[in-house]
Amino acid sequence: MKRLAIVGASGHGKVVADCAEMCGWDDVVFFDDAWPARSELGHWTVVGNTDALLNRLDEFQGVVVAIGNNTVRRDKCLLLLHAGASLVTLVHPSAMISRYAHLGDGTVVLSGAIVNTDARLGSGCIVNTGACVEHDCLLGDFVHVSPNAALAGGVTVGDLSWIGIGAVARPLIQIGREVLIGAGAAVVSDVPDNATFVGVPAKPIKN
Ligand SMILES: CC(=O)SCCNC(=O)CCNC(=O)[C@H](O)C(C)(C)COP(=O)(O)OP(=O)(O)OC[C@H]1O[C@@H](n2cnc3c(N)ncnc32)[C@H](O)[C@@H]1OP(=O)(O)O
């Protein structure tokens, strides 16, 4: 029996649980700080909060943090790592990962996504449904590439940045850390740290 603990009982958590089962994890349970008010999530059970998991880590072969918010995901991952958790990397069977790509610990690649040749992704990233991270992209830690977003060859994305659903970035663009790229944006120029860019072509809306 392969037991997996998922932290974060949300819509994203469900998708990660489904992915984990497709990857061969046959006993998947959730931990969420809203427990006991939140005690079930669709097909899965929420059995405790983060503190409960910290006391039960030896029962699980793997742990994944399935929280969409990049900063909260980072904080939970670091807490669990320091407690000795084994953060697993999940890749949905329908995703295509180049043998020459690198995925950091705790990174999740969901159905239909592509991570192409020589792309390097840090720890705790999400490559969401149908997203494309092209060759030679360099993603920091705790980056989220939303569904159907596409990063062209050689794009870099700093730690904790979020690429919105359906957004695209042209080749070799440099996107800073803690950046937010809005849904459907077309990024055609470099984006500084902490900026929010939206639209086609993408422009800043606030810093
Ligand atoms: C599986 C999953 O669901 S994964 C989750 C995927 N989720 C996403 O991709 C969400 C991405 N988020 C967005 O695009 C958001 O709109 C954000 C973060 C860019 C902005 O959100 P907020 O800060 O709340 O901004 P708000 O909605 O108040 O809009 C501010 C202005 O920017 C405009 N704006 C906001 N988002 C966008 C966008 N994506 N493209 C163009 N303009 C936009 C608004 O029209 C508004 O313009 P106005 O001031 O002229 O009226």
List the helices and strands and how they pair.
Layout: E1 3-7, H1 11-22, E2 27-31, E3 40-41, E4 44-48, H2 50-55, E5 62-65, H3 70-82, E6 90-91, E7 96-97, E8 102-103, E9 108-109, E10 114-115, E11 120-121, E12 126-127, E13 132-133, E14 138-139, E15 144-145, E16 150-151, E17 156-157, E18 162-163, E19 168-169, E20 174-175, E21 180-181, E22 186-187, E23 196-198, E24 203-206
Parallel strand pairs: 1-2, 1-5, 2-4, 6-9, 7-10, 8-11, 9-12, 10-13, 11-14, 12-15, 13-16, 14-17, 15-18, 16-19, 17-20, 18-21, 19-22, 21-23
Antiparallel strand pairs: 3-4, 23-24
The chain binds acetyl coenzyme *A.
Acetyl coenzyme *A (ACO) binds near residues 128 and 165.
Would you kindly provide a written description of the structure presented here, covering whatever features stand out?
The protein has 207 residues and is an alpha/beta fold. 15% of the residues lie in helices and 30% in strands. It has an eight-stranded mixed sheet, covered by helices on one side. A six-stranded parallel sheet has the order 7-10-13-16-19-22, with no helix packed on it. A hairpin with a 2-residue loop joins strand 3 and strand 4 (44-48). It is globular and about 45 Å long. The mean pLDDT is 97. The structure holds acetyl coenzyme *A. Residues 128, 146-147, 164-165, 180, 182-184, 196, 198-199, 205 line the site of acetyl coenzyme *A. This is Acetyltransferase.
